[in-house]
Design goal:
The protein contains 6 helices and 4 strands; from the N terminus they run βααβββαααα. With 173 residues, the protein is an alpha+beta fold. It has 2 domains: 102 residues, no CATH class; 61 residues. Strands 1, 2, 3 and 4 form a 4-stranded mixed β-sheet that branches. The protein is globular.
């Protein structure tokens, strides 16, 4: 997962997170039926960061994402400078492994129910009322837009933090 920091960093971070996380990409799937280990996934993220650095941009340390599953780093650049490089590096080095790792770490049963409840609490704390477990991800985002308008960043960050609750939007299979 790539993030950018700098002149337009906060906005670019959200845009890169949304765009790169939901794109199908062109990277080949991992050659094994066995899901990648955390070490294999970290190596793929490190290769993506090295690719960005080889293109002349500075990156931050790799760290665990807000969802507790994905790994991410920031890119220190403006949005105009990095967008194409970030996408190319991500698709070449990270996407296929990240997708397989992510899907192998989707919670089920009681753990998913617990995280779904925390997602709804987070969204409500961000100012959205009337959400329920029956709501799809699209219904939650619509409620955010309807109730918060242009001020929905905090509520959207809830979906980012709990992206394993609605994994379909992250990496469509």
């Amino acid at each position: 997962m790539l993030r950018a920091r700098g002149a337009a960093g906060a906005l670019l971070s959200l845009v890169l997170l949304t765009v790169l996380s939901s794109c199908g990409g062109t990277a080949e799937p991992a050659p094994s039926d066995k899901p990648p280990t955390l070490a294999e996934y970290r190596k793929a993220v490190e290769a993506g960061a090295a690719c960005v650095e080889d293109a002349g941009f500075q990156t931050t340390e790799i760290r665990e994402g807000a969802d507790g599953v994905t790994l991410e780093f920031n890119i220190i650049a403006s949005s105009d400078e990095i967008s194409g490089v970030a996408t190319a590096c991500y698709e070449k080095h990270t996407l296929a492994v990240e997708r397989a790792y992510f899907w192998s770490n989707i919670p089920t049963g009681a753990e998913r129910d617990r995280l779904h409840g925390k997602l709804l609490e987070c969204i409500e704390a961000a100012g959205v009322s009337g959400v329920s477990r029956a709501d799809s991800e699209q219904a939650l985002v619509k409620a955010m837009a309807d109730q918060l308008g242009d001020n929905m960043t905090e509520a959207l960050l809830c979906i980012d933090q709990f992206r394993t609750v609605f994994p379909e939007g992250m990496y469509p299979e």
